[in-house]
Specification:
Length: about 280
């Protein structure tokens, strides 16, 4: 779609909602000239752009009960809750192969958001220039502090882009997209509230002060982007898709039935929005 972007929020296992929406888009052959995502949003977006129907479901629901995917065992043995080697090497190369050729030859632009551990700045890597390293970059974008170690790439040390740009809508507008579809994984637009955890995390992550600062400011950053989105929605520049039902699912959910319900909710919400979305994009 000309001058229309697709923006994908992260959220760990809550990203199954996004996977459901994108599955409906795949079936209906709905594509956008520009796609940007962070963390789980980038993960789900990659299989969408490689045109692999059902892959997100097979990987993130079918394999989630495997301890190599997500477990306390991973945290104890490897200092990572999610098995990053399993997710970004074993699965895409051997278990549920990722179609690198279709991904590389798809016409859409694809940007992945990360944070530089030393400077705290948001860094975005595009498919065109970094396609051969796409899994490593998505891995970096999915690496949360304390959950996974930073990823070294192109002379930088990177972590989850959601820390500094949780919903990269401003980047999408800055890149020339006059209208944007945003898929959120939260079911409401309530502002985040301060917690003692953020200060504690700052203490623990003192090795990278810029990251610690982003952790502490994250609720301000998130609340600001929500306010920005509301303003742009009123102008008709954003079409928002988010869970119509508040399902009690955590970012580290392993219950396959709950994840399937979230996936199906995303698919159903996309289906319900279909006509209105089509009219909005044509306006």
């Amino acid at each position: 779609m000309h001058n229309c972007g697709l923006v994908l929020e992260g959220g760990g296992m809550k990203g199954l909602y996004t996977a459901g929406v994108l599955e409906y888009f795949l079936e209906k052959k709905v594509f956008f000239n520009y796609v940007i995502g962070v963390s789980a949003g980038a993960c789900m977006g990659a299989s969408y752009l490689s045109r692999q129907k059902g892959r997100n479901k097979k990987v993130n629901i079918g394999l989630v009960s495997d301890s190599r995917y997500l477990s306390w065992r991973n945290l104890i043995l490897k200092r990572e809750l999610f098995g990053m080697d399993f997710l970004f090497d074993e699965i895409p190369n051997n278990i549920v192969p990722f179609d690198f050729h279709s991904f590389a030859t798809s016409e859409e632009q694809f940007f992945i958001g990360t944070i530089d551990c030393h400077t705290g700045e948001a860094l975005y890597y595009n498919k065109q220039d970094h396609g051969k390293d796409i899994l490593k970059i998505i891995r970096a974008s999915s690496s949360l502090p304390f959950i996974a170690p930073p990823v070294e790439y192109d002379g930088r040390l990177l972590l989850d882009g959601g820390l500094v740009d949780p919903i990269p809508i401003k980047k999408a507008f800055a890149d020339g997209n006059q209208k944007n579809v945003v898929i959120m994984t939260k079911g409401d637009n309530n502002r985040l509230k301060p917690s003692k955890v953020s200060s504690f995390m700052k203490l623990l992550y003192r090795k990278y002060p810029a990251v610690a600062d982003s952790l502490q400011k994250r609720l301000i950053t998130y609340n600001e982007v929500l306010s920005f989105m509301e303003t742009e929605q009123e102008k008709g520049n954003i079409f928002l898709i988010q869970p119509s039902v508040d399902l009690p699912i955590s970012s580290f959910e392993r219950n396959q039935k709950k994840l399937l319900a979230l996936y199906e909710l995303g698919y159903g919400d996309a289906q319900r929005h279909d006509q209105r979305l089509t009219e909005w994009m044509r306006a």
